[in-house]
Amino acid sequence: MNLKILFFASLREQFEFSQKEITLLKEVRTAEEFLSDMSKQSGGEWIKLFESKNMYKLAINQELSSWKDLIHEGDELAIFPPITGG
Amino acid sequence: MNIIIQENSFSISKIISEFSKKDNVGAVVSFSGYVREFSKERQLKSMELEHYPGMTEKALAEIVQSAKSHWDIQEVTIVHRVGKLLPKDIIVGVIVSSRHRSNAFKACEFIIDYLKTDAPFWKKEISEEGETWVAERQEDVVKKTSWNKLD
């Protein structure tokens, strides 16, 4: 399963990349399952992110979403800290 | 609706003046936000503003559409800066026109309240003490939630 992952602000600095195409070894249904799978597949920062996911926001295909929302092949997932514009 | 994300500064008074020349405008209300010199008693050297290109414009357009569904307003322009800003620099401008003042006042406040929590921008403050990502303000979340009774 292929996904485009984007990080912003503190997460971009933590992961040291702003966007990346990621291939999962198996299909996942939800954004939460994606994080769980990545923490097993890649470890490191992904484990920290999975454990603290409720501190972060998620957008699927540029729409604010929840970790329980379904994801599909080719989706763009952006993960970022709470918004602080204005 | 005009949504502009840019690095350069801008003149809010010029936008207000342009709005006032349009047909049948009775009121123009604007909000402008600036970089403060101090944050939590630390003197700021600069601020970095990051955004999510694409989603930012979409989120702002949805906020303006929502405002238009609640109030009878005419024109809306939002200008938000990104990149490096200095103390006293303008960050954001929201300008709303309507036939009567009440609609423009409410819509302008609604738009900036939603922009604060739903449009993907992030601020980093740079001071002598180092760099800090600005944390979410609970007051902003409460302020946005207070509009829920409209729906």
Question: Termini distance of chain B?
Answer: 22 Å
With strands numbered from the N-terminus, the spatial order across the biggest sheet of chain A is 2-1-5-3-4
Q: Briefly, what CATH class of chain B?
A: Alpha Beta
SS content category of chain A: alpha+beta
The CATH superfamily of chain B appears as: Molybdopterin biosynthesis MoaE subunit
Please supply descriptive tags for the structure shown above.
heterodimer; A: 86 residues; alpha+beta; Ubiquitin-like (UB roll); 5-stranded mixed sheet; 3 helices; 5 strands; globular; B: 151 residues; Aldehyde Oxidoreductase, domain 3; 4-stranded mixed sheet; 36% strand
Q: In brief, what are we looking at here?
A:
The complex is a heterodimer of chains A (86) and B (151). Chain A has a single domain, classed as Beta-grasp domain (Ubiquitin-like (UB roll)). Chain A has three helices and five strands, in the order E-H-E-H-H-E-E-E.
What does this structure look like?
The complex is a heterodimer of chains A (86) and B (151). Chain A has 86 residues and is of the alpha+beta class. The mean pLDDT of chain A is 96. Helices cover 30% and strands 27% of the residues of chain A. In chain A, strand 3 and strand 4 form a beta hairpin. Chain A contains three helices and five strands. Chain A is globular and about 40 Å long. Chain A has a five-stranded mixed sheet. Chain A has helices spanning 9-15, 31-42, 45-51; strands at 2-7, 19-23, 57-60, 63-65, 76-80. In chain A, helix 2 runs antiparallel to helix 3. Chain B has four helices and nine strands. In chain B, strands 3, 4, 6, 8 and 9 form a five-stranded antiparallel sheet that branches. In chain B, strands 1-5-7-2 form a four-stranded mixed sheet, with helices on both faces. Chain B has one domain: Aldehyde Oxidoreductase, domain 3 (Alpha-Beta Complex). Chain B starts with a strand and ends in a 6-residue tail after the last helix. Chains A and B meet through helix 1 of A and strand 4, helix 2, helix 3 and strand 8 of B.
